[in-house]
Amino acid sequence: MNEMICHCFEVSRDEIEKAIREKGLKTVEEVGEATNAGTGCGGCQDRIQEILDEINANLAYFDMNNSDGTFRILENIFRYIQDNSSFCRLLLSERGDVTFQKRVMDLCQGRYMEQWLSSPRDIDPETAEYLYLYLVNGSIGVVQNWLRTEMEKTPSEMAELLLRFINQGMSAFA
User: Fold this and answer.
1) HEC letters along the chain
2) Which of 7, 43, 80, 108 is the most buried (most CB within 10 A)?
């Protein structure tokens, strides 16, 4: 169920998350300007801040400029997938929840696109979008294949493999 955050203007959590993701919003005031949430009685401003904090805390771990940190993150993701393989197989199968897969992609997109476009790489926004989609869809394909092959490689081996794919793909724009 989509949680209603701002009752004054009937703004849902999904609408707020989408605005944060697409516009890179960082403050309650920016969310209010983009969605009107929190600009009526103000009673939902703490909840909006909680959403901002939650999203930023989750995304703060994903810093593609730090290879060691990224390796650890990927390794933990693969461990989580391994520990919850039945559930992950269901979500990521051909008959799985496409909405879940899209939500994961959307949560990361704004952060990565912003980093790539502000980096010294010579890459335009359209090419960055293609690169992002290529890397994310490829990464999901890698995870799906790992699950199909009964996770023969360890989470560390998979993290190293995926990080190598990501870094070599990005090095073409260095």
Assistant:
1) CCCEEECCCCEEHHHHHHHHHHHCCCCHHHHHHHHCCCCCCCCCHHHHHHHHHHHHHHHHCCCCCCHHHHHHHHHHHHHHHHHCHHHHHHHHCCCCCHHHHHHHHHHHHHHHHHHHHHCCCCCCHHHHHHHHHHHHHHHHHHHHHHHHCCCCCCHHHHHHHHHHHHHHHHHCCC
2) 108
The separation between the first and the last C-alpha atoms of the chain, rounded to the nearest angstrom, is: 43
- Read off the pLDDT of residues 49-93 as tens digits, 9 standing for 90 and up: 999 888 776 655 444 455 566 778 788 888 888 988 988 888 888
**In this structure, which amino acid lies at residue 79?**
R
Structure tokens at 143: 């995870």
Query: CA 88 to CA 81: how far, in whole Å?
Result: 6
Q: What is the pTM of this model?
A: 0.53
